[in-house]
Specification:
479 residues, mainly alpha
Length: 479
């Protein structure tokens, strides 16, 4: 069941109405349990709607990690480590089998064994990462294991964030269950709920889907187009993937907030970053933090000298790229970002004293330097998306070669070029506005309840748009 379909809107409305009924007829201690059971059953239905056979995999990961966390918390270090290994081996073993076995077999030319490969369960990368982070935190004594199996099951399978995140930390999720769907709380945050839903559907169904055909066409037929048309196609994809995934996140946050759960921010205007490390604090924030804490720091981080730090960065980003999909294209895409982060860190170690102090402190110089760095980071990130999007590694090299050689060919139509220019300009304007006025926007949504009619009318408009057009699946649903 996909967020951008009318069926999901109907599903969300039905679950919301059932919650209202439960709150009106149950006024005792059993109310919270009934609400949790409703959310769990709704989440399991949501997940099994497309792939019912994958439900057993989800439940297996949840059950193994739930019991392992209790054994880890109540045993000495050696026994705890043993059950940590069992937990991680089972979760990542399942992930390896379903997601990477085909890549391994093809890499070693073992074509006869491809019959072993099964369909990839939706969202497996996300719920395995979320569940494993919980067990690791229990092992490190950062958190106590949750006693209720229902609470843990809801933590992993909560439908707004089950399929494509954000990856939520246990210490942020479980305290919110105490205020699960309080009507008074929802009333205060109703404007924020509608804002997230409106923003998400605008980003996905209007902006992302409008430029997607251009990006798809260029990546499919790049060999007949000129270098400048290819460049427009690359920019189109950078716009598409940002609005697609950040749109998904907004819908997920709005859907969760209806039930009193606040999901973490996952995108914070990444295309106005002036450094690659800053980009990864703004892009897919929950995954970036997971990789930093549970992988980068675990293999040493920056504690063992400059050379080891560079190796750790490269390995972390290589595996982070491979997490996105069973393809060496993804792995190389991640490796390149590791190279960028290493180069950036190297330059930070070099004293920069060649700029005169008077020029360095001038407003013009600061704006100029900011603009240059922003253009460089966006350009490099956009070019690197080629390895993420292209159908093969060979296609990636061919596309970049045509750009470098300024090859001639067919040109995109004026309407397509104008569309990309307009959407790109809107993206950058809204990025600067949201980055600078985030607090003011939050205050407006929390206090100006009189604006609800406007939000509601806009939301209904988005529903009409959804009903009148065919939308593309979310890009990250396959990860």
């Amino acid at each position: 069941m996909y967020f951008q379909t009318p069926l999901y809107i109907l599903f969300l409305s039905v679950v919301f109405c059932l919650n209202l009924v439960i709150n009106s007829i149950w006024k005792n201690s059993s109310q919270m349990i009934v609400i949790k059971l409703l959310l769990i059953s709704s989440s399991l239905f949501f997940y099994s709607f497309e792939q019912p056979e994958s439900l057993l995999i989800l439940l297996a990961v949840v059950t193994i990690d739930y019991f392992c966390s209790f054994i880890i918390a109540n045993n000495g270090h050696n026994n705890a480590r043993f059950f940590l290994v069992i937990s991680l081996f089972s979760g990542f073993g399942i992930l390896l089998y379903f997601k990477y076995l085909k890549l391994i077999l093809l890499t070693f030319n073992q074509m006869n064994y491809l019959f072993l490969v099964k369909n990839l369960p939706i969202g497996i990368s996300f719920f395995v990462f979320q569940s494993s982070s919980y067990v690791i935190d229990v092992f490190k004594r950062k958190i106590e294991p949750v006693r209720s199996y229902l609470d843990y099951l809801l933590y992993i399978c909560f439908f707004p964030q089950l399929v494509a995140g954000p990856i939520m930390r246990a210490e942020k999720f479980f305290p919110q269950l105490e205020n699960l769907f309080l009507p008074s709380l929802l009333e205060k945050k109703f404007a924020k709920v509608l804002f997230f839903l409106l923003s998400g559907y605008l980003k996905k169904s209007v902006l992302s889907d409008s430029v997607a055909p251009i990006a798809d066409h260029i990546y499919s037929y790049y060999n007949v187009y000129s270098w400048d048309s290819i460049l427009i196609g690359l920019i189109a994809y950078s716009i598409q993937i940002y609005f697609d995934f950040s749109g998904y996140t907004d819908i997920a946050r709005g859907s969760a907030l209806i039930f009193g759960i606040e999901l973490p921010e996952n995108f914070s205007s990444p295309y106005i970053s002036i450094g690659f490390s800053e980009f990864w604090t703004r892009w897919h924030i929950s995954l970036s933090l997971w990789l930093k804490e549970y992988l980068y720091f675990s293999i040493g981080g920056n504690r063992y000298g400059v050379s080891r730090t560079f190796v750790n960065l490269l390995l972390t980003m290589f595996l982070g790229g491979l997490w996105h999909g069973a393809s060496w294209n993804f792995a190389f895409w991640g490796f390149l970002h590791g190279v960028y982060l290493s180069i950036e860190r190297l330059f930070k170690l070099i004293p920069m004293s060649i700029t005169p102090l008077k020029l360095k402190n001038s407003r013009f110089w600061k704006v100029f330097l900011f603009s240059i760095r922003l253009i460089i980071v966006y350009s490099v990130v956009t070019l690197t998306w080629v390895f993420f999007r292209a159908n093969s590694f060979e296609d990636s090299l061919n596309i970049l070669t045509k750009l470098i050689r300024f090859d001639s060919g067919s040109s995109l139509g004026y309407s397509d070029r104008n569309l990309i220019q307009i959407v790109f300009l809107l993206m950058m304007i809204f990025s600067f506005i949201s980055d600078r006025f985030t607090h003011e926007i939050e205050e407006f949504l929390n206090q100006n309840v009189t604006q609800l009619k406007l939000f509601l009318a806009s939301f209904l408009l988005i529903i009409m748009i959804l009903l009148s057009r065919e939308s593309k699946p979310f890009i990250y649903f396959v990860f």
